[in-house]
Design goal:
By secondary structure, the protein is mainly α. Helix content is 75%, strand content 0%.
């Protein structure tokens, strides 16, 4: 469990997630611009939303994972807590953005007598793409801040630059 909760592991998984996320966003944009079937695009968007949700939940709960593995209270606890805080806030962001993308996808898939989206389905898919782009940027920001926090230090509580 120590290896899974490590910064290199979280960073590597985050980078690996960026690959399908970037390729999927590109494919969805290309297919929407070409006027392809919205259901085909919705499949792509749904998969990407699930990936953001899943990874968001995993990194959000880094502290809990460390507790389960009895890795809390070690000599570098202050550093680990700073990393946990970065993971928590980024994870919440990924989770919410992935959920919003999923809401868009499901609103397109619902029958028109339940959710009347006829004629605006592509627009709603573009909105989902926007949430996914925001998610990709959040993940990229998370990776940069994670590395900065882990390797270049962190600000101790109560410390303010003068």
């Amino acid at each position: 469990m120590r290896a899974f909760t490590s910064v290199p592991c979280f960073g590597l998984i985050g980078l690996l997630i960026m690959v399908p996320l970037s390729l999927g966003i590109y494919a969805a944009c290309r297919d929407l611009a070409a006027g392809k079937d919205v259901e085909h695009v919705a499949e792509i968007l749904e998969g990407l939303g699930v990936i953001l949700i899943g990874w968001g939940v995993a990194i959000e709960e880094r502290h809990t994972l460390r507790e389960m593995a009895h890795l809390v209270g070690l000599p570098d606890e202050q550093r680990q807590t700073a990393i946990d805080n970065v993971c928590h806030s980024s994870g919440i962001g990924l989770l919410i953005l992935g959920l919003f993308a999923e809401i868009c996808v499901e609103s397109v898939r619902l029958p028109n007598y339940v959710m009347p989206t006829e004629g605006i389905d592509p627009l709603i898919c573009w909105l989902a793409v926007g949430f996914l782009i925001a998610g990709a940027l959040t993940l990229l920001h998370h990776l940069v801040v994670l590395v900065a926090t882990a390797w270049f230090g962190y600000r101790a509580e109560g410390h303010h630059a003068s």
